[in-house]
Give the backbone structure.
Amino acid sequence: MDLLEKKLENIKDLAQEKNLYAYIFGKKSKIFLENSSHRYCIDDGRLLKLSRMNDKKCVLLEIELNNGLKLYKHRTEVLTRKYKGRSVSLE
């Protein structure tokens, strides 16, 4: 289980209590990179999404795992512009 899957497990019950649907979108695959000192991999950017239970097309929040957790989308455009692509903590 990777970091994104752990976060989903952590918030799934709370999301249901708040009438939200939490799920991971995208296929898990790794991208391997190398430099002169070591080889490492990054996630391809799967998304952890939160949407309303009765309207799964209305995504309220997307979080991506790409060398850390990053906010991708929020239900208000102001917050999206302010935080899009920045590292965030879910703790």
